Amino acid sequence: MSAVEEKRYVGYKEALAYGLAAGGKSFITTPTQSGYLSLFFRKVFGVPYEAVSLMMLLSGVWDAVNDPLIGSVIDKTRTRFGKLRPWLLITPLPFAVLTVTLFGGPSFLNGVDSKGVKIAYMFVSYILWELCYTFADVPFSGMTTAVSPLPQDRTRVISFSTFISGIVAGASQTLLLSLMDASSTGVWNVSLRTVFLLIGVISAAFGGGLFSLAGIFTKERVVQSARQPSVIEGFRVLVRNKPLLLIVLSNMLMSAGGLYNVFTTYYFAEVLKLNSLKLLIDIPGGAVGIGTYPFIPAIKRRFDNKQLMVIHFISKAAVGVVCFFAGFRHYASKAVAVPILMLLNIVISIANTVKNIISTEMIGDTIDYMELKTGERNEGVSFAVSSFFGKLTNSVSTSIATAVLPKIGLVYHTVNGEQVAVKGQKTDFYIWMFYVLVPQLLNALGVIPFFWYDLTGKRLEDIRSRLTERREKMLAQRNAETNSEKKGFEEIPERTDRSLSEEEK
Q1: Domain range annotation of the chain
Q2: How confident is the model at residue 9 (pLDDT cuts 50, 70, 90)?
Q3: Smallest Cα–Cα separation from 381: which of 398, 366, 395, 393?
Q4: pTM of the predicted protein model
Q5: Fold of 9-221+238-476
């Protein structure tokens, strides 16, 4: 066993700091999930459906331009802190400022009736927010592979990240939904625009503060090549990375289930008319999800990552079908819908808890795979492209969902300065269908690429073993070169006579 295999690089304090940073990121991004964002722009800001749908679609196109380029910029970064950590040090502040800017739109433009001005503000604020988010998210995700060469270290960091981010995201959602209901029911005499401004400020201060811990306390330990790869080289390596391309394709297919976030939000807001009821439904799933973490090592000993991904897709599709028909005639009844949705959420929570850990591990495996083939690590491009295709299809799904809402009879009219929902006869049923059934069936499409994924078992063990040997040799060579340079410098005689010699003159 080598020294690298015996040593544990990442302590619990560093893993905890990374997990808290993940929680901070989740606290900021939870209110920007597609469902809440669609509701915010439409119901709170008063932007027309068509403009919101178009903005969601164009934001996906915008991601197509900026995500891979940002990933390449990050891969080319070379500093004494590494290539990922510098971005984690500088992005928290602008990330926080742009979050306040995004959710403060209705308050900052209070009294402005021009839809054109509102649409322009929506486009500019969200696209800038999305750009900053990418600069923050790509290096943050990449750090899970760069923080250590050991799989067990990476699993620990990813587990802390998903565990804490889930809890903090729940706190963010609880705050948002509770304040929305307090405003809507008159318990708190403030408008929804004030609620979202407050959410933006709290997210920026609390979430941004936690997110800054990633840059302060985490370190890059995987040896990077001194040479800076060009943008073209980064994409060439990506094209040759078959396992990563299969994961990306799977992310694209399952992101079509992004309809779930939109119709979840509208189901509780406009069918059950109680936003915070979602919190009650989330409690069993959240508890079971947390209880899943201790069993993940045992689960991973029984199944490999590929098998777990297949189980993830099949289980969610099956429970979606069961729950849809169980509530087929009683979707508007809280007494019937709540226990059904609790069951749905429990299965989704277990499946997503395992999936969130192993999918990040798998991307790290593909980066190791290409390092063995090419000698280069491409965390920036790899995570950016993986994230981009997921965001692209999610944006398309959100755009489609937003455009579908008026088609199924849900429209808003302005009454006394507030947006009031008007529904058709079957609107509630369609919202139930697009919430419970359709997303889970579409999500199951993501299983298809994994039939060709083969980065598992002995092949993966061999890659890790050979990489360990290569990294040890590379590190020893660099240390030898550094010591040689120091020795050569020390052997240069120091002149005691600082006056110029005749020859120098």
Answers
A1: 9-221+238-476
A2: confident
A3: 366
A4: 0.71
A5: Growth Hormone; Chain: A; (1.20.1250)
